[in-house]
């Protein structure tokens, strides 16, 4: 195989990885801090895609309209996350995982039907913004500018997330809530506000990833189910609650899937699930996670 072809496979896997990181990072943080398995996280991703399409129709089909629509979608899903957390999720804290899965799965069905009612069942698409519509030659391979943009924004968000969690007062409060919520509450901190903030941030990332995927993927009902399975695999590989674990778990998933398609086309998904099974056997808490 030509080196340029292998490089193209690597870059394709990296693009997939950064999309997965955007959605899986929020899922990992919610579980790591709030101990809630949010199966509806994929539905927030789907709504972000639909809202981005709607925003493009409202603002402008080209140019700055895409960026305004993406911000609109991310903020809209963040607001929805705040409402859902305040009204419903607060009753799930401390409950068994079965209750969480049943409730969040019901939420998946509700949001899925709402999306069909509002936008129908036809495939929708969004054009790539003109500033990123071209491509460049790197090591003999053609790389779309939009894919390079996604590869750049993933590490940027990972670094900013790490900076906030480890080098700020808000991050210290969040980590304290993760370690001992009752003690933090006894010290006078508003734990409820911290939880709401984390859930809003998680929902914002899900909506943003849904908006950013629209130029390269069709918007269809059911896209939430596929992405949430992939996100859970990433979180299991990297470790629940570990921000950098989710980042590297996404990279591992993307590259294994990309080269798995190249080497074993009929067993590409099997290679990813086999990797997850091995990690669960060797380190049940993930590569970068900690035992609960």
Describe this structure as you would to a colleague:
This protein has 292 residues and is mostly helical. The chain has one domain. Helix content is 73%, strand content 3%. It contains eleven helices and two strands; from the N terminus they run ααααββααααααα. It has a two-stranded antiparallel sheet. Helix 1 crosses helix 9, helix 2 packs across helix 8 and helix 5 packs across helix 6. The N and C termini lie far apart (44 Å). The model has no long low-confidence stretch (mean pLDDT 84).
Shape: globular
- Give the low-confidence spans: none
Strand order, largest beta sheet: 1-2
Number of strands: 2
Order of helical and strand elements: HHHHEEHHHHHHH
Query: What does the radius of gyration come to?
Result: 19 Å
Can you summarize the main beta sheet?
Answer: 2 strands, antiparallel
Q: Which features does this protein show?
A:
3% strand; 292 residues; mainly alpha; two-stranded antiparallel ribbon; 11 helices
Topology summary:
Blueprint: H1 3-34, H2 41-59, H3 65-87, H4 97-119, E1 135-138, E2 141-144, H5 145-167, H6 169-179, H7 181-186, H8 191-213, H9 223-238, H10 243-263, H11 268-282
Antiparallel strand pairs: 1-2
Helix pairs in contact: 1-5, 1-8, 1-9, 1-10, 2-3, 2-4, 2-8, 2-9, 3-8, 5-6, 9-10, 10-11
């Amino acid at each position: 195989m030509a080196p340029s072809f292998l490089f193209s496979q690597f870059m394709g896997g990296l693009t997939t990885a950064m999309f997965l990181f955007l959605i899986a990072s929020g899922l990992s943080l919610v579980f790591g801090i709030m101990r809630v398995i949010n199966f509806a996280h994929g539905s927030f991703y789907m709504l972000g895609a639909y809202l981005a399409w709607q925003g493009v129709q409202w603002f402008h089909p080209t140019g700055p309209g895409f960026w305004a629509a993406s911000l609109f979608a991310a903020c809209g899903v963040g607001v929805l996350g705040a409402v859902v957390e305040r009204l419903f999720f607060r009753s799930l804290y401390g409950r068994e995982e079965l209750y969480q899965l049943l409730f969040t799965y019901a939420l998946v069905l509700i949001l899925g039907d709402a999306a069909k009612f509002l936008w129908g069942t036809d495939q929708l698409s969004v054009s790539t913004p003109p500033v990123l519509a071209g491509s460049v030659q790197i090591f003999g391979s053609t790389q779309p500018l939009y894919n390079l943009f996604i590869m750049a924004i993933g590490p940027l968000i990972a670094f900013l997330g790490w900076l906030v969690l480890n080098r700020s007062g808000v991050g210290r409060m969040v980590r304290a809530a993760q370690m001992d919520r009752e003690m933090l509450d006894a010290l006078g901190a508003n734990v409820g506000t911290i939880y709401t903030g984390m859930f809003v941030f998680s929902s914002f990332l899900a909506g943003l990833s849904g908006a950013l995927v629209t130029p390269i993927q069709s918007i269809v009902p059911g896209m939430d189910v596929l992405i949430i399975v992939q996100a859970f695999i990433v979180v299991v590989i990297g470790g629940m609650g570990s921000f950098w674990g989710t980042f590297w778990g996404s990279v591992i998933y993307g590259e294994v899937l990309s080269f798995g398609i190249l080497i074993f086309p009929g067993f590409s998904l099997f290679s990813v699930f086999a990797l997850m099974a091995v990690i669960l056997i060797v380190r049940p808490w993930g590569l970068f996670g900690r035992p609960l």
